[in-house]
Each structure stands twice: as C-alpha cells, then as structure tokens.
C-alpha cells in the first residue's frame, strides 16, 4: 500500500513544495475541526439546559445574561464551521492546482522516456501496452495517491480526537467504532486488486478500441472507410470489444458493490446499537443531554471517518498498483548510448558493410544475409529488388535504427556502434518512403530535417529549391507559413507528389550531411520532376555519398553502383552497363520496364 507513496510524495514535492505544504497544513486543520465542532455542540446543548434551569428558577428574569453563554458557544461553533468550510475549499483549490501541474509533469516524464526508446520498443506490442497503460492512467494517480494519503491522515487525526472524547463514555464504544468498518475494508481491498488485474488484462483490447476510434474518426482514414463502406464493420468490431469487456466489468462492479453494501450493514448496525446505548445512558442520567448530542455526533462522524479511511486505504492500494505501471514503464531498460566517437580513423573510407546479417526481433528468417558493400565518398548507390527484398532494412541498419545481428557496418573506418549519436545523425540525411507528414507549417515540415534550423526561413527556402518544392510552396496563400493538414485551422492538404517534394526538401535541409539516403523519393512525382530532381541531385552530391532506393529504372541507371537485393542477399552488383551485359535479374527487370514505355 505504501510502496510508491514515498515516490509520489517526492514527485509532488518536486512539482510544487508550496502547494504540498499547504495541503499538509490544511489536512491537520481539517482533521481536528470536526471533533472541536462536536465538542462545542455539546457545550451549546449543556448551556441551553443550564439556561433553562436558571430561567425556571428566576422566572425568566435573567435578560441577555441568561442567553449569553449559549450565544457565545453558538457563535464559536459558527466560526469553527466557517473555518472548516474554508479549509475544504482551500484543499480543493490546492488539489486542483496540483492536479494540473502534476498531470503535465508526469506526461512530460512519459514523453521524455519515449524519446529515449529505441525503434524496437515501439514495434513491441507488450511494451506498447505498457506505454498505453502508463499514459491512460498513471498521470492522475500520483496526486490521487497523495490526496488519499492526506484524507487518511486527516480522518485518522479526526478519529483520534473523536476517540479521545469518546473514551470518556466507554473504551468499548471506541472499539466498536473502529472494528465496524473492517469487513468492508477487506472486501474493498480485494476488489481493487481484481479491478487492476482486469485493467491490465484488457490493455490490448482497449488499445485496439483506441485504434479503431482513430480509423473511424480521423481524416486520413476517412476516404477509404467511406469508399469501402468499412464504417459499420469497424463500428461492429468496436462494439464487440466493448461487449466482451463489459461482461467482466459488470460482474466485478456488481460483486464489489454487493459486498460493499452487505458488509456496510454491519457498520450501520454498530452505529444504531451505539445510538441505543447512548440514549439509554442519557435516560439513566449517566450523561448529560449535551454529552448525548456529542457522543452521537462523534459516532456518526467517527463512522464516516472510518469509512473514509478505509476507502482511502483501498484507493491507495489501487493507486499503488497503477503507479507500478508508470514506474514499470519509466524504468524499462534502454540500451546505453553506444559510442562517443565524433570521427572515424579513415575519413575518406565511406561506408562499409562487412558480412552483415540481420533478423528483426521476433522474426524467424533473417531480413538481410551476409551483406558486403563498400561505398566511397562521391559515389552513388542504387538499391533494386522486389517488395520485401530487404532494401529499407539495409537503410535502417545504416542509420543505426537497428544493430546488425551479425557482422559490422563501418563509417570512416569506425563501427557505427562506436559513433556518438548526434555526430552520426549529423552525417546522414535520410527520407524513408513512409516519411512523416507533420500537421505543422510547410516551412516547419521542411525545417524538421535539421532541428538547428527548424525555424529558419532562409534555410527552408534553400532546401525547398533543391527539393523542387519552392514553386508550389510559394504559390500557397501564406507561402512557407501555410498550415498543413486538416487538424488545425486553415490547414491545407497537399497532393502526394507535393508531399514528396516537401520530404525531399527536408532531406536537403541536412546540408552538412555527407550521406544522403532517399527511399523511393520520386515514386509519387511526375516524370518531369523526377528527371530534374536527379540531374540536380547528382551535381549536389558530387563529393558525398548518395543512396537511392527506387523501382524506377530511369532513376536507378544513373547510379555509379547498382545493387540487386533478393530475399535479403545481394545477387548482382555493378553499374548499369555492366549489369545489362551480365543479362541477369537487373537486365530482365530493366527491359521489362523499358518495354512498357515503348
Ligand atoms: N519492423 C519490422 N519488423 C519485422 N519485420 C519487418 C519489419 N520491417 C520489415 N520487415 C520484413 O523484412 C523484410 C524486408 O523488408 P524491407 O522493408 O526491407 O523491404 P524492401 O525491400 O524495402 O521492400 P519494398 O520495396 O516493398 O519497400 C520483409 O520480409 C518485411 O516483412
């Protein structure tokens, strides 16, 4: 129950010490006030009874002096009640402010962790569940845990002060008060555990539901969902998941509340038993009428406090379970950043693959097999092969998104693993075929290629010119400041080819990079644009390394070195003329495409 309380407390303290101190003080004040109010209530009744006696004896001749003690106590109770009300309000104010700050802080922690993760984490469904669980629930749990700890403390203080007053009546009364709530507490704790298990278990299903929501309700899927009439089918799936989950949730809720009610009756019975006892004691004149009012109030409040304590405790238990998912995620091991070297021993060596093999995590067959390759600065390389041959995988290895399962890749004579992360990233500019389409401004979409110049207007323009995006961008209503995508106000949508030109410009933002990798950069471009891009590309890449993956042989043939990949192996290599002469796969595919154009 207290496992994560310390950490949650540290987190809240780090978020706002002032608010936390405020909460603690308010907790103590709110804890003591109810008993004080009950005590003053008793003094009011006793003062009234005394005043009645005096009035009887003096024939109502006392005047203001007769009422004075009563009025003073009443005013005092009024003040205490006002103070209690103020304390409640201030608590909820502190709580609201902390909730906002803490929610943000935890979300930032979750996102910061996400930035340190590797690509493999994102492709691992179990890890994804963990991330989703942490995101869904954990951001509200630390505060909830603190508030419950506060409520626990406050009610414990109240209970102790009630006990101190009640013990004058009978120690047994205190015992009854404390024990009456225990059965419902045990039930509550048990069901909190089960609710958490259910939450954990249904993670994949809830994730599927969230995904279906995205598919049904987001613009990028809307076109297909409409045209293929997928809507009802997807909605049906969505509802089926709900129906499957609902059965379990209902069963748990029914059991939880059923037992809660049944065991709660024990508390009610104890309260009314004590009520009768106190009443009889008053009739027998063992206690005054004022004391009776106080003891009854103490019992009623005391029972409320016991219930609140038990709720807080089982809630804390539940919060701890949920926080465990947050810390499980935050503490998920990430590989330490591999290298620290800023340059290699042979700056003119370029890129070398030495017997590189790679199998995706969880996959059985290797995606790449015994790849040997050397690309020198100033050279261009084209990768050709059918779908799924392993071309993109080769690029993912080169960019160190994955590490080879066997063999090694060298840049400037230094193993990629030895390179400092930032130094390596700065050397390589890459655009994948599934490049991201950010719902930002056009300029920022280009600027994303180089964070240092993310906002630099002049650099955007330069890159856009090289990527052939400049003419159409400049014709947009707000030029480089036009918002893209439909999520935000005045967002414009671009055509497939225009997006590709943006992506290409993004790659050109890396003007310091001496390796440029383009994975099917021109597939969506018109033929004129493609020819121009490559003419341009060649002059630009004179002393650098250019790697292009393309299914268009008009592009491929311009490369100095062409590699044909088949089922993860290099099966042919050479320049266009050599490969044509060799009359193998390349020559076959080339002639096939050329014939199509005749
Ligand atoms: N993230 C991944 N996890 C597991 N397997 C993958 C992953 N990405 C690709 N694969 C598999 O690895 C193989 C090579 O894929 P790759 O994307 O490298 O092909 P490609 O040659 O680029 O194909 P295309 O021409 O269709 O783009 C395929 O069999 C594919 O199913």
From TrEMBL:
Keywords: ATP-binding, Cell membrane, Membrane, Nucleotide-binding, Transmembrane, Transmembrane helix, Transport. Residues 21-318 form the ABC transmembrane type-1 domain. It comes from Solimonas marina. InterPro entries: AAA+_ATPase, ABC1_TM_dom, ABC1_TM_sf, ABC_transporter-like_ATP-bd, ABC_transporter-like_CS, P-loop_NTPase, Type_1_exporter. It is a multi-pass membrane protein. It is found in: Cell membrane. It comes from the Bacteria. GO terms for cellular component: plasma membrane. Pfam families: ABC_tran. This is ABC transporter ATP-binding protein. The chain crosses the membrane at residues 258-278. GO terms for molecular function: ABC-type oligopeptide transporter activity; ATP binding; ATP hydrolysis activity. Residues 351-592 form the ABC transporter domain.
């Amino acid at each position: 129950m207290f496992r994560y309380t310390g950490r949650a407390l540290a987190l809240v303290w780090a978020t706002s010490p002032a608010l936390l101190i405020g909460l603690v003080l308010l907790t103590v004040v709110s804890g003591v006030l109810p008993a004080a109010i009950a005590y003053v209530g008793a003094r009011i009744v006793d003062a009234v009874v005394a005043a009645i006696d005096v009035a009887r004896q003096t024939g109502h001749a006392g005047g203001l002096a007769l009422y004075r003690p009563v009025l003073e106590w009443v005013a005092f109770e009024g003040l205490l009640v006002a103070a209690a009300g103020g304390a409640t309000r201030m608590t909820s104010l502190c709580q609201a402010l902390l909730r906002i700050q803490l929610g943000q802080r935890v979300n930032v922690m979750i996102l910061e962790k996400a930035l340190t993760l590797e690509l493999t984490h994102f492709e691992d469904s179990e890890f994804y569940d963990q991330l989703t669980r942490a995101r869904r629930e954990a951001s509200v749990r630390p505060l909830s845990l603190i508030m419950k700890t506060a409520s626990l403390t406050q009610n414990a203080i109240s209970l102790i002060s009630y006990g101190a007053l009640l013990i004058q009546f009978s120690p047994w009364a205190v015992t009854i008060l404390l024990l009456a709530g225990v059965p419902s507490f045990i039930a509550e704790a048990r069901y909190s555990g089960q609710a958490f298990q259910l939450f954990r278990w249904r993670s994949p299903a809830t994730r599927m539901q969230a995904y279906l929501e995205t598919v049904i309700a987001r613009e990028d899927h809307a076109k297909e969902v409409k045209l293929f009439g997928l809507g009802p089918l997807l909605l049906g799936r969505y509802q089926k998941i709900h129906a499957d989950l609902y059965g379990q949730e209902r069963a748990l809720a029914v059991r939880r509340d059923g037992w809660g009610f049944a065991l709660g009756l024990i508390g009610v019975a104890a309260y009314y038993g004590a009520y009768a006892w106190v009443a009889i004691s008053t009739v027998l004149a063992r206690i005054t009428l004022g004391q009776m009012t106080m003891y009854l109030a103490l019992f009623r409040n005391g029972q409320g406090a016991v219930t609140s304590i038990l709720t807080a405790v089982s809630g804390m238990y539940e919060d701890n379970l949920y926080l465990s998912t947050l810390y499980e995620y935050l503490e998920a091991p990430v590989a330490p950043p591999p290298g620290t070297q800023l340059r290699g021993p042979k700056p003119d060596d370029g890129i070398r693959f030495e017997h590189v093999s790679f199998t995706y995590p969880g996959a059985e067959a290797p995606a790449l097999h015994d790849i040997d390759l050397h690309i020198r600065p100033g050279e261009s390389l084209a990768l050709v092969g059918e779908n799924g041959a392993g071309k993109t995988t080769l690029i993912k290895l080169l960019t160190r998104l994955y590490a080879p399962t066997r063999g090694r890749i060298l840049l400037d004579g230094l193993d990629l693993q030895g390179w400092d992360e930032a130094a390596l990233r700065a050397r390589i500019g890459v655009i994948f075929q599934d490049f991201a389409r950010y719902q930002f401004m056009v300029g920022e979409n280009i600027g994303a290629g180089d964070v240092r110049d993310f906002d630099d207007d002049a650099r955007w323009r330069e890159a856009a010119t090289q990527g052939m995006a400049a003419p159409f961008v400049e014709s947009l209503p707000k030029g480089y400041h036009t918002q893209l995508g439909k999520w935000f106000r005045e967002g414009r949508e671009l055509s497939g080819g225009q997006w590709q030109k943006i992506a290409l410009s993004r790659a050109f933002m890396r003007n310091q990079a001496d390796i440029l990798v383009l994975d099917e950069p021109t597939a969506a471009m018109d033929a004129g644009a493609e020819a121009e891009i490559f003419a341009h590309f060649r002059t630009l890449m004179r002393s650098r390394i250019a790697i292009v993956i393309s299914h268009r042989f008009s592009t491929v043939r311009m490369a100095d070195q062409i590699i044909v990949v088949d089922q993860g192996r290099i099966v042919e290599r050479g320049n266009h003329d050599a490969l044509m002469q060799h009359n193998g796969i390349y020559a076959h595919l080339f002639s096939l495409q050329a014939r199509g154009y005749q």
